[in-house]
Structures are given as structure tokens and as C-alpha cells.
User: Fold Redoxin domain-containing protein from Flavobacterium cerinum.
Amino acid sequence: MRNIYFIIVCIFLSSTVTAQDNTTLLFSYTLHRNLKSYSKQSDLAYQTGDTERGHFLFDSLVQNQLVGTLFDDFNLKRYHKNRLRLSTVSKPVFLITYASWCVPGKGEIPALNKLARQYGKDVQFIVLYWDRKANIKKLSKKFDSRIMICYAHETYNRDAYLVSTLKHSLGFPLTYLLDEKRNVVSIKRGIIKPDQKITYAKAVDANYTSFKEHLNCLLINKINDSSQRLAKH
Assistant:
């Protein structure tokens, strides 16, 4: 199966790299170009218990290579609606990846819903599950209507490249922050796990604060872009 993914990646990259301009590299091309070296160093760091270096390597890959690349125009399956092509979204995107077998932490989904209610007008929130449609039926009902629930699985047609690029590269849960032109603003790893002994309300607040810090990257970037456009006129 991994060989199949590799072949798909090679075919896709060979057809897309030539289409890029001289200033913007495609996210998938840049990721796969750096993935082998990153994975080797990262695996060694975690095998030796050096989690600090593991985090450093991830942050370095994101900041030095992936930020500023053009995120692929993936065509996502939506649970309640037709497919979503990312290029049709005119707002910045807050995309978080999950799996149905990973139980969300206490207060995690309510915190995300709260954020979507407050900023859904300016930012498109997307939750992408690495699973079959049937397995996310109950989970999809827990999210606010402002959040698009999508899914992808290795066995589905046209999902292989999406899965190999996003799921089998940097892992999950992962949050991808994209501006309105699909440029990568930041990528955040993991979700905080509040102490299970704290109250539900405090757990929601803790997760909300964490998500809000991620979102600030998009909001600040949007303000800066608006200021630059005004300065040109």
C-alpha cells in the first residue's frame, strides 16, 4: 500500500511542479521533498526520548520550508453536502485533522464550536476525519453548523493522494492555517489534554485558549494583508 502511495505522489508531483510559478512552491511538493530527511531525524529523536528535539525539528520544517507554500487544491468529501474544493473557499481556512478512534479531550469540541460561532463569518472551519463516512455519523452531530465536517479514507476513490500527503506525513491531530489564497500561514501539531480532574468548564476554557492562539495566526495575517492593500491605494 505504501508503494502505491509513493507512486501516486511521484506522478502527481511530476505533473504539478512544472505548473508552479517562480515565487510560490506547492505545499505537497515542498513537504515530500523534505519529508525523508525530517522523518529520519524525528524518528531518531523520539526513539531516544528527546521529545524537545522532536518538537524543534517539526517547528523548523514548518517555519523554514512549509510556511508560505501554496496548499494543494484538495477536493474534500463533506458529510452533509457535496464535495468541497478548497479553491472555492474565499476566506482563510482553519483545517484540523482527526480520527474517529482518537477520543477528543474533555471540552475540546465545545471549545472549537465556540470559536466557530465567534469567527465563522471571517474564517472557514473544517474538520477532516481520517475515516469512513459511517464511522463519523455520531461525531458529526457534535459540531456547530459553521464547521464543515469532511472525511477521507485510503479505500475511497481519489483519496489516496490526500491521505498520503496529510495523514501519512506529519501525523494527526494537526491544524493547518491557510490564508484566503491558500498560502500556508502556520501548521500546529497536537491538541492539549487538560487534566481530567479539572472541571468541564475549565477544560473548555483551556482548549478554547489553545485554539484561539492558533486562530490568531490567521487573524493577524488577515489584518496585515488588509493594511498592505490599503497602503497601495
Notes: Residues 76 and 84 are 5 Å apart (CA to CA). The helical segments are 2-16, 27-47, 51-66, 108-119, 137-140, 160-170, 200-232. The radius of gyration is 18 Å.
